[in-house]
Design a protein that fits this description.
alpha/beta, 5-stranded mixed β-sheet, 3 helices
C-alpha cells in the first residue's frame, strides 16, 4: 500500500480546511491487514477529512479485508447490527456456509497480538475511488457496501470488472 496526505498547492486550488488522504491498495489479502491498519492510523493521525482511494489495480480478495477498510473509512456510528455493509447469500444446495449479514467493525486483532485494538476512523462522507477494468470483487464490495450505507462514492476511471458473486474456497 502507498498512502499519504496530498500536498495541494493552495496558490492554485482552494480546498479550504480539508485534508485529503490518498491510498493505493493492490489486494484485499489478509496478510496485508496490519499494513492497512497502519495506513489508516497514519492518515487519521494527520487529520484527513476526505479520501481518494486508488483501487485501479486491485482485483479483490478477502471479504474481511474489505470490511476492515470500510470500517476505517467511516466512523463508529456505522458500526452495528442495523447497519448492513453486505449480505452474503449462498446457494441453497450449499450446506457448509449459511447466509450472513456483514456489519462493520470497531476493533481489530493485529497479527501476533493477544488483544484487540480500536480501529482508527476517518469518518468520510464522500469517497473518490479510482478504478479500472482490473477493479473487482472485494474492491467492488467497498463501492457497493459504502453506497448501501448512504456514502457518496464517486468513481473516476474506467468501468470496473463487475462481479455479481463471490466465492468460497
Amino acid at each position: 500500500a502507498f498512502y499519504d496526505l496530498l500536498n495541494v498547492n493552495e496558490k492554485y486550488y482552494d480546498i479550504g480546511d480539508k485534508k485529503i488522504g490518498y491510498l493505493s491498495y493492490l489486494s484485499f489479502d489478509g496478510e496485508f491487514d496490519d499494513a492497512l491498519v497502519d495506513a489508516f492510523t497514519y492518515l487519521s493521525g494527520k487529520g484527513v477529512t476526505d479520501m481518494i482511494l486508488d483501487l485501479r489495480a486491485n482485483t479483490g480478495g478477502h471479504v474481511t479485508s474489505s470490511v476492515l477498510m470500510a470500517s476505517m473509512l467511516l466512523d463508529e456510528s456505522y458500526v452495528g447490527e442495523d447497519k448492513v455493509y453486505a449480505r452474503l447469500k449462498h446457494n441453497p444446495a450449499n450446506t457448509v456456509y449459511h447466509d450472513q449479514d456483514i456489519t462493520l467493525e470497531k476493533d481489530y486483532k493485529p497479527s501476533g497480538a493477544s488483544a484487540k485494538v480500536d480501529l482508527p476512523n476517518i469518518g468520510i462522507k464522500k469517497l473518490w475511488l479510482i478504478c479500472s477494468e482490473n477493479t473487482a470483487s472485494a474492491s467492488e464490495m467497498v463501492i457497493v457496501g459504502l453506497r448501501g450505507l448512504d456514502v457518496e462514492v464517486t468513481l473516476v476511471g474506467t468501468r470496473t470488472e463487475g462481479k455479481n458473486c463471490g466465492m468460497e474456497v
